[in-house]
Protein: Adenylosuccinate synthetase
Amino acid sequence: MPALVLLGAQWGDEGKGKATDLLGGSVDYVVRYQGGNNAGHTVVVGDQKYALHLLPSGILSPGCTPVIGNGVVVDPAVLLSELSGLQARGVDTSKLLISGNAHLITPYHQTLDKVTERFLGKRKIGTTGRGIGPAYADKINRVGIRVQDLFDESILRQKVEAALNDKNQVLVKIFNRRAISAEKVVEEYLGYAEQIRDYVADTTLVLNRALDEDKVVLLEGGQGTLLDVDHGTYPFVTSSNPTSGGACTGSGIGPTRISRTIGILKAYTTRVGAGPFPTELFDEDGEKLRIIGGERGVTTGRDRRCGWFDAVIARYATRVNGLTDFFLTKLDVLTGWEEIPVCVAYEIDGQRVEELPYSQTDFHHAKPVYETLPGWNEDITKAKSFDDLPKNAKAYVKALEEMSGAPISAIGVGPGRDETIQINPFI
Ligand code: GDP
Ligand code: IMO
Ligand code: MG
Structure:
């Protein structure tokens, strides 16, 4: 059985955690391939709610091996506290595997993330402040610290000292902050080594062997397509590739082994942090979406910006990810509107534009062109099949499918595992 990718089709928080958890019972491995603890994935199992940041959502499925792939940036303190939090709730975390090639987030990355944002002032990205950007910058700059470095004290010391040489100059002379002691960082990180050692593995080898044996591997994205450093709304993006290409590089699984790429798509749109968002609402409807949808960040507690569904973005996600299916989430949140506007194109400087403009300036000027679809009032949270949905909800889903360029194979009608309408099986 080949591998599947599950990723965010908008600006993150589409409901990837729920979708991954739903598939967790039918797959053998769930792999995070990029990002770090900037992610916040909510999983609701019965009356239990879990917020996962770094660990793959498959960790809640007993038969599934969770994997942190080489493309992830790992904050070891967060890792250990997330693990102990789950263990205290009776979750078996012993199967976790972590790539030795994954990079580590260190205290200086977090400090740099925060001071850089502060200095950007009004131009700030609105990052999660978790050190994600600076950790990836070090990786690309070839001065990063990897998980495997924890097990060689002299390499760890050399690398931390080298990295802090120039970073301390920047911190002290530019940002007016105190220098960070290399020795303290080394001491702290050596303290994590033994707690992490048993989880560390050659995950690329493990995953490819698993695929050879017909096991099912699910690659779980963090963030979303429009936050991708290459394909997103740069510079208002994260510093990794949540898009499907990132699933290959971040796991060491080749593209020929991936059979299905599922885009998680919210029935409306949200965004956290700064950056363009054509369908953003500043009125009562936006407030209503935020309240009914519970749109508050799992990681930072910030209110999410809310707006109507944007089909231009959905089409773009289909294109840059090669999506085979969509999982449409949070349809239940739209219950109760008389009419629901959907953005079908943009107007930019008087011209109608059907595709996402590649120019940042154009995208900043994009105004949504709406079509209005009739709403519904019936409670849909108990719907089990597509036919259980009211006529107008069905028409809404069909219209979104038509505009988005890939079949909608599942629909979320509530946060719980069983609050899902499966139209086509994913596996
Ligand atoms: P992720 O980052 O993509 O995993 O998404 P988040 O967990 O940050 O945000 C999605 C939120 O929507 C969470 O609170 C989920 O429990 C919730 N959720 C997911 N699917 C549905 C759905 O179909 N209906 C409703 N009402 N809530 C959902
Ligand atoms: P999940 O996986 C929504 C946003 C931040 C900021 C930008 C850069 O839960 O969907 P970073 O800390 O990554 O350098 O911040 O990206 N961001 C997210 N927005 N969901 C996420 O993750 C996000 N992870 C980062 O708000 O705008
Ligand atoms: Mg989230």
